[in-house]
Amino acid sequence: MPNKITPAVRTNNITYAVRDIVVLANQVAKSGKEMLYLNIGDPNLFDFEPPRHLVDATYKAMLENKNGYAPSSGIKEAIDAIEREAERKGITNVHDIFVTTGASEAIDICLTALVNDGENVLTPTPGYPLYTAIASKLQMMENPYYLNEENGWLPDIEDIKSKINYKTRAIILINPNNPTGSLYTEENLRQIVELALEHNLVIFADEIYDKLLFDGKKHISIASLNKDVSCITFGGLSKNYMVPGFRIGWGIVSGRKEVLADYIEAINKILRARLSANHPEQYGIKPSLEGSQEHLVIAMQKLTRRRDLTVEMLNSIPGISCVKPEGAFYAFPRLHMKQPDSHFVAELIKETGVVVVPGSGFGQVPGTQHFRVVFLPNEQILEKAYKAIGDFYQKYLEK
Ligand code: PLP
């Protein structure tokens, strides 16, 4: 028997619950069971469509043979459009903008350019698992701060303060949050700015869902609150413009130039080494940001009905409570039980075909159990799924 190829230790802790759960769902689907998928945050798989002018601009760029490598930071037309978008978001003191293969790549590059082995980054918990995966890769320590479910999933500033140490380099904010759908308040954001300035932290503001807001809520970009704080604001076309398969995102660096200069150069070294992001798709950025936003109006009407149904039906199940999401298309209901939520979810999928993601895949306050639902499917599917979850949960608790 030849020696096995051993993978690098840094991959040991990489999990991505959102996709990992699909392995089990596929096995169950093979048995012929009807499946209800409430696990995938891709609007295109449901009745949501990207704006036509975005697709047309990309197609036109392909026909015009904009099919070579792009400049490493992105094409000028897109960078200029993102700069104007930053202005609309109230972000001033911008020193660099770069287009990447999804916001995911921008986040990866900016962490890689910042954090040394053994240093740590404050990550919202529950939060999006990409950060945990990058942390493992970089052998950087995650320093989780807890979002408070009793307070609409807002961060607890005292908790953050108590966790900052001399090896803390950055604080990550996902606003609106995945998986909770919560929106940070201005007071919260101002407190985080103060901490970042005091401890020389870089704020990573993941604002990929900033246009998907309910009930007329206004989004506040943390970078707009202080022109001196070092901040990278991440955005992209995946969610607001519903083309996650285009893999187009960006980072906007703002703050004091003299503080950020070396860091910006390090980011650009990595950008150059990886050549460029997708080229023709970058021609969709300007039309998206500056063309008609009608698709958002239609999407938010649908999503509001689906969000309301989700909160109402889940809260009517004894032993489940669900905070009302204020943005994005996720809810993170709590299961008031002792069993691990991964067990609950696996049994739920096998028994009912309803696919959700266990809360443990997003990190959570120890001792609490949750699951994440994506409320992109239509009302009939959601109703059927929540009814099945309610019936299953009662039986599960009696076992
Ligand atoms: N950030 C958050 C909070 C997300 O939920 C996601 C995708 O689900 C991403 C980033 C990834 O975005 P992109 O498709 O632009 O890489």
UniProtKB/TrEMBL annotation:
GO terms for biological process: amino acid metabolic process. This is alanine transaminase. One of its GO terms (molecular function) is pyridoxal phosphate binding. PANTHER family: GLUTAMATE-PYRUVATE AMINOTRANSFERASE ALAA. The gene is alaA. Its EC number is 2.6.1.2. SUPFAM superfamilies: PLP-dependent transferases. InterPro entries: Ala_Aminotransferase (IPR051926), Aminotransferase_I/II_large (IPR004839), PyrdxlP-dep_Trfase (IPR015424), PyrdxlP-dep_Trfase_major (IPR015421), PyrdxlP-dep_Trfase_small (IPR015422), TyrNic_aminoTrfase (IPR005958). It is an enzyme of class 2 (transferase). Its cofactor is pyridoxal 5'-phosphate. Belongs to the class-I pyridoxal-phosphate-dependent aminotransferase family. Keywords: Aminotransferase, Pyridoxal phosphate, Transferase. Residues 34-385 form the Aminotransferase class I/classII large domain.
